[in-house]
Structures
1.
Amino acid sequence: MDSLSFILNFFREGIFDGRKAYLKLAGKRRTVLVPWLLAAAASLALGVFLFTEYRNSIKEYYAYDIRQEFTLPDGTQAVLFPGSSISLKPHWNPRTVNMSGTVRFTVAKDPAHPFTVTAKNAFAEVLGTVFTLCDNPPEITVEEGRVRFAAQADAEGIVLEKGESAIIKDGAPEKKPLFVFEDSPLREVLESLSGHFGVRLRCAEEGKRLSAEFKDERLEDIILLVEEALDVKIEVVK
Amino acid sequence: MAQRYSIEELFTSYYRPLCLLSLHYTYDTAASEDIVQECFVAMMSKTPKNPKTYLYTAVRNRSLSWRQRNKPGEPLPEDIPAPEDEESTSIRDARLWTAIESLPPQRRRCLVLAKRDGLSYKEIAEKLGISENTVRNNIAKALETLRELPEVKKSFILLFF
């Protein structure tokens, strides 16, 4: 019998669970209790235990060799790249997940409950909607909406918007340069800046080429830097 | 190469694979789970130098004894892995089991009712209150997901379901 048939033949939910077995077998303690106290304690304990078991129940998602897409209990879509996993306690807090690897989240809208993702060296809190978080090395790319990104859950971090990316450097988040030009003609540079800042930029010497990176700078500063670097004059058209 | 595992890591990583290894001998899920639990308890009190090797050996031996006691005279199943293949086979089986467990509930139910219990699509449809077409789709999608696993692809097994 091939392995898939073998497994399917015997499959049942809720068995062969290592975590349950660990809790059952490795947490044993010997106590002596008076019989009536034992009975009362046992019923209370059973109730609390079942409730916490339910609340602490964990849901896990894995992607092995290929990309896998899942819908999480709160409606968020997660695309797991190969070698990634997600875990959460849906009955404890369906809007908090742990992950490892690289996952692209399309977060279901729920302004009352922020969605948070914790990875080994990165943390993201979503103020709504589509982003990709990779944990090794830690990097985030925001496609839509706004995301608060930090190295840990309790750090302030930075807020990123659509189109922005950031990495964790020396334990703190750092926005990746928004503009990267490699031997780009000035015309392209101006088009790119115009598009992002919503202004029209003009220059007589559009043929000159620029290699530069601009990280989160104001348009006026970028213009000055380009003018200096290429010895040109850039005009902002109203 | 010596690797130090915490007890919790041993449970998380090897409990399921060991249950499935035992299952190859016993063909009885309850018996296998008991056997593996006994082996873990024994391991925890004996604290062997190499817990993983100890566990695999113990599970193999106890499963074999169980079979000899409970199914005397029956020949051993053919797909019992050789000792050197036990770890890789059991981990592969565990991943398959986990993959089935991770299927969306209705797909998993349809798949299991069809392949494990031998119900017809009609019977499954009646039992779950869905259409036969939905049953067929669910099973097809479930098998598609499982077929994509490297565990299944690598063994070059084509499933004609």
2.
Amino acid sequence: MRMVLIIVTLLPISMGFFMSHRYEVLILTVPEVTQDEMKQLETELDKLIVAEKGSVISFERWGKYKLTYPIRHNDYGVYFLIRFEAPQAITKQVDELFKIRLNNFVVRHVVTALEGESLEYQRPKSLEEAPESRDMDSFLKKNKMQGLLSSVDKKEAAPGQDVEMATVSEEESVESESASAE
Amino acid sequence: MTKKIKLKISARLVKKRTRRASSSTAKQCRFCGTPAFVADIDYKNAGFLRGFLTERGKILPSRISGNCNLHQRALSRQVRKSRCMALLPYIAQYN
């Protein structure tokens, strides 16, 4: 009787461990990630999940982003979002995969359990998607403010003018001095 | 027993009373009001979470944002997660 009770109470817990859950991994890689490395990432993760009798729901490349703080001396990074269905035991293996085996180009990763049915989400726009870059020169060109554009040329021109002015003032001063001497 | 009546009112008490009277309606949690917004509290949705940070990148206190305790905790947890992935800053830097 006791044994049966113990089994009945433990069953939901053990079932929870072996039952498949839905997870998502957000991965941050270095900006100069190649196509081969991308494929390696996809295949290695796929292997892991299939070995545990799970399935990949989606594999997305978010694109290039400007990071809010530099990581490994990189100001930019590429994000990937992967969603999959697998038993709970897989999360440790996924951590190991990114921390040890793909360490050379995966910088950060976070594994989270998906709650609810909907797979919709919102994300900030990547640099590739953004229609207007926040570059100052392109903004000026678009709004026809060409006069402000050549900030570099002006800087070069400005000292030259100063020199001319200086020479003139020197000559004047010399003249005035000579005049005073006379 | 007769109840003691306070004859003298201190300046501090007057200030306190006026402050309470001025803010007649209490702030309400925007997530409790519209449950559709709750789905926006997500570490991936950095643009939305940025509204709950100060200029320097600190998390706004619920005293100012008006969130209830439940949603403030959920929000701060997601902000911290987002910071880890470099979608939000730990500290915004001077330019």
